[in-house]
TrEMBL record:
The lineage of its organism: Bacteria, Candidatus Roizmaniibacteriota. It comes from Candidatus Roizmanbacteria bacterium RIFCSPLOWO2_01_FULL_38_12. The chain crosses the membrane at residues 47-70, 77-99. This is DUF304 domain-containing protein. Keywords: Membrane, Transmembrane, Transmembrane helix. The keyword Transmembrane helix applies. It comes from the Bacteria.
Amino acid sequence: MEPQPGGNSTNFSHSFLMRPNVRFETQHKGEQVILVVRRHPLTQLSWIINSIFLVIISFFLSFFIFPTFFEARFSSVFFLFAVFFTFSYIWINFLLWYFTVGIVTNERIIDLDFFNVLYKEFTATTISQVSEITTNIAGFFGSIFHYGDVFIKTQGFQQNIEFELVPRPSEVVRIINQLMGRR
């Protein structure tokens, strides 16, 4: 997705964007993006905390433990390797979060899931094929910070769409229901 100038609504985390001016690869002519959602930023805390822990451990090992057993150059090489590994871990996790999105347009609902850097899954359905929408807010943090899952079931044997751990799932359902009512 590439940003276009003059978006209507954005937020700090870019996890719930109303009417953003973005374009995506398979967008039809005249198709307007109504909503873009991605996982709530709070759900990313596990890999962020792991990254901080890795930096602290590698610093501690490189400058306090290894110098007593190895030469200084081995400690430096280990530290550089650990930093490279940690920042690669951070970069990959950020990309997976940023590019795994749910898109609601005036014509379709699209779920783009990145499972790793080399594998993505694209699922789309038209608004008219949606038969049922369910939201699920579970757990302490989901209730407090208002994030959860949105399940979109389609008619027939088509694949169902899931927006996992997105902010304001009730509002996502409301927007899709409004679009279904217009059809």
